[in-house]
Amino acid sequence: HKAVPSTEGDLSDACVADAFLKMADFFKIYSGYFTNQPAALSTLQKNETDNIPFSKFVEQTLNHPKMRGLKLFAFLMKPCQRLLKYPLLLRELVKCTSE
Predict the structure, then answer these.
(1) 26-67 pLDDT, tens per residue?
(2) Predicted confidence band at 3 (pLDDT cuts at 50, 70, 90)?
(3) CA–CA dist 22, 42 (Å, integer)
(4) How many CA atoms lie within 13 A of 16 on its CB side?
(5) Helices (H) and strands (E) in the chain, counts
(6) Contact in structure between 48 and 58 (CB atoms under 8 Å)
(7) Which one, of 99, 98, 49, 97, lies nearest residue 73 by Cα?
(8) What is the pLDDT of residue 26?
C-alpha cells in the first residue's frame, strides 16, 4: 500500500488499529443501544401518534435550528449510521496507507 503524504508532520508511526483498540470498550455501548432500538423506535412512533402533547413537542422542535429540520427518529438512527461508517473508513485507510 502506498502512504499518503501528510501536511501535519510525519505520521509514519501512527497506528489506526491502536486507536481503535483504545476505544474498544466504548464500542460496547452500541450493543445495548442496538438491542433496545426497535423498542425505542416503536415507542417513539406510538407516542408521536397517540400522545398529543408529545406529538406537538416533536413538531415544534423541527423548527429549532439545532434540529436542522430532522425528526427525532433521525437522531435515534445516528449512532447506527456512525458505527456502520467505521468499516468503510478503515477500508479506505488501508487503501491509502502502508501496512
Answers:
(1) 888 888 888 999 999 999 999 999 999 999 999 888 889 999
(2) very low
(3) 34
(4) 12
(5) 4, 0
(6) yes
(7) 49
(8) 87
pTM: 0.61
Nearest to 80 by CA among 45, 18, 38, 22: 38
CB 79 within 8 A of CB 30: yes
User: Rounded to 5 degrees, what are φ and ψ at 60?
Assistant: -65, -35
- 11, 98 Cβ separation under 8 angstroms: no
Query: Using CA atoms, how far apart are residues 57 and 55, in angstroms rounded to an integer?
Result: 5
d(CA 76, CA 74): 5
Q: How many CB atoms lie within 10 A of CB 87?
A: 9
**E strand or H helix that includes residue 94:** helix 72-96
